[in-house]
Specification:
single chain
């Protein structure tokens, strides 16, 4: 029996099972969302991969995804080596200007030297938002000096020019097999680079081999991949094939680090198969657009979708501790001690037997139990049926001088068993007959 202060569960067994099932299902759901869910993109209106404005690059990210590339928009300032030797780092209009800071140029050079290759898209415009912070009011051109500074920081030789260039202009060198549509073309002029798409006044897409065998592809005009202009002419094809050339070179370098760098990225037909879709990830940098974050395990666990797992785990632990804890509040009073002796034991047995049945039915079970035991201990023949067994016990009892007669006891048992009464009087009558049965059993088996 429970003593004073003994802990009692705060939940019933069934409630505990239901809560445990709910916790398990909830945790499984949170893990599925945490693994397969995606973090919401930051709100942006500028020239970055998150922006859906006219000056953003969100549509270009979608193009790469549809082409089968494993695209990662990276905000983490951690080491670029974690993406692998076959990763392709893509820097689109990085915000790296003279006098801005000293860390961004270092970051720019680190990204261009990381993985198996890189694509650098030079800046061209500065987006100015409306009052709602979503739409673009205007996008004036960046000073050519600031665009050229990006090349300087990247340690790439060349100068940048702009000119009115209608769509019908002929490109004298076209390794990409596509013709862009540009209103004002921003071109690069260089003597040490390989021209992939260019004309007499400058190039739109060029590449430089890296000392480690990788390649840096530079797209001088971002209009080929902006949300507002990527759908014009072959702009999307030009942007995708520029990425493909660099991705193919990155995958080839990772597979054979000692192989020499192929001129023009190792292809001359501008195809879009192989390369990135079957190689490493295409990592689009967001750190140079003001979205940089230091690696933080705690922040990752408290951000969607992993925050669902964190919350569910804390709730599950709290519920399990609550279920395991004892009953709170003042201690329950101690149960009264049981009386000692034969009469108390018999009365307790009677109460146990009658807890779920009528006193008469419980008494019949008690009688059958004692009769079977008396027959076994008296070595009665095992072939006797009920009437013969009763007659055998009656005769044996008479020879042994037993005080009570089995026929009289059976009659009392049948009388109580036939009665539907369950009150205190019926219990007392059943206890009286039970005592007589016990005395008869003692006389029969001594």
């Amino acid at each position: 029996m429970s003593g004073a202060g003994e802990p009692i569960s705060a939940f019933s067994a069934r409630a505990g099972q239901v809560i445990s099932l709910v916790v398990i299902v909830s945790l499984l759901g949170a893990f599925v969302v945490g693994i397969f869910g995606r973090s919401p993109a930051p709100d942006s209106w500028g020239s970055d991969a998150y922006s859906e404005s006219a000056a953003g690059h969100r549509a270009f990210v979608g193009v790469l995804n549809r082409l089968g590339y494993r695209v990662v928009v990276n905000r983490d300032l951690g080491s670029v080596t974690r993406f692998g030797d076959d990763a392709l780092h893509v820097l689109i209009e990085p915000t790296v200007y003279v006098g801005l800071d000293t860390e961004r140029p270092e970051r720019l050079r680190e990204l261009l030297a990381g993985g198996g290759g890189a694509v650098l898209v030079l800046p061209k415009r500065v987006a100015v938002p409306e009052a709602d912070g979503v739409t673009i009011r205007e996008a004036p051109l960046v000073l050519l000096e600031d665009v050229g500074a990006v090349l300087v920081f990247a340690e790439l030789e060349g100068t940048v020019t702009r000119e009115l260039r209608p769509a019908s202009t002929t490109w004298t060198t076209n390794e990409l097999g596509a013709v862009p549509t540009l209103e004002v073309a921003q071109l690069i002029v260089c003597s040490t680079c390989d021209v992939l798409l260019g004309g007499p006044d400058g190039a739109l897409v060029v590449s430089w081999p890296r000392p480690d065998g990788g390649v840096v592809v530079v797209v001088s005009d971002p209009d080929v991949l902006l949300n507002a202009t990527i759908g014009e002419g072959d702009n999307a094809v030009v942007a995708a094939r520029a990425v493909h050339l660099a991705a193919r070179q990155a995958a080839g370098r990772a597979a054979n680090p000692d192989a020499p760098t192929a001129r023009n990225g190792g292809t001359s037909n501008g195809g879009t198969g192989g390369g990135g879709a079957g190689g490493g990830p295409v990592v689009i940098d967001a750190t140079l657009h003001g979205f940089a974050e230091q690696p933080s395990f705690a922040r990752t666990l408290t951000r969607f979708p992993l925050v669902l797992i964190t919350t569910q785990t804390l709730l599950a632990v709290g519920l399990l501790l609550w279920m395991a804890a004892g009953r709170f509040g003042s201690p329950l009073p101690a149960a009264p001690e049981l009386a000692r002796g034969y009469d108390a034991l018999l009365a307790l047995s009677s109460r146990v037997l009658t807890a779920a049945r009528t006193p008469g039915a419980a008494l019949r079970s008690y009688r059958d139990l004692l009769v079977r035991d008396a027959l076994e201990r008296s070595h009665a023949p095992w072939t006797l049926d009920d009437p013969e067994a009763t007659r055998w016990l009656k005769e044996t009892g008479q020879r042994r001088g037993v005080r009570d007669d089995i026929d009289e006891l059976d009659a009392a048992v049948r009388r109580l068993a036939a009665s539907p009464a369950t009150g205190q009087g019926a219990e007392q009558a059943a206890v009286h007959v039970a005592r007589r049965l016990h005395a008869w059993h003692e006389d029969m088996t001594r």
